[in-house]
Amino acid sequence: MDHGLTVADTGVYFLHYLNLDPRFIWFPGHVDALPSSPDKETPLSPAHPAHPSATARPGRRALLAGGAALTAGLLAGCSGSRPSVTLYQSKPEAIPFFRGLVGDANGAQSAYRYVHDVATNLSASFVRASPPDIACQNYNLEMARFMERGALSDLSDMPEAATIREDVLALADWYPGYEGRTSVIPYSVTAASVIYNKRVFADHGLDVPVTWDELLDVCRTLQDADVTPIYATLSDTWTITQGLFDYTVGGMVDVRSFFETLNAQGETIGPDSEVSFQRTLLEPMRRMVELLQFLNPDAASRAYGDGNTAMANGEAAMYFQGPWALAEIDKAGTDVELGTFPLPMTDSADDLRIRVNIDLSLWIPEEADQPEGARELLTRFMDPAVQDEYNASFLAFGTTKDAPPVSDPRIAPMQEYYDRGAFTMGASQFIPLTIPYENYIQSIALGADPETVLRRIDSDWSRLAYRQ
Amino acid sequence: MSTTTPGSTTGTAPRSRRRRTDPVYYLFLFPALILFTLAITLPAVLGFGYSFTNSMGFGDWDLVGVRNYIALFRDEGVVSSYLFTLGFALVTVVVVNAIGFALALGLTSRIRLQSLLRTLFVLPMVISGIIIAFVFQFLFSNSLPAIGQALGIDALSSSILANEDLAWVAIVIVTAWSTIPSTMLIYIAGLVTIPTEVYEAGAIDGATGIQQLWRLTLPLVSGYVVINTILGFKNYLNAYDIIVGLTDGGPGTATRSVAMSIFKGFSGGDYGYQMANAAVFFVISIIIAVVQLRITRGKASFGA
Question: Å from B60 to nearest chain A CA?
Answer without folding.
Answer: 6
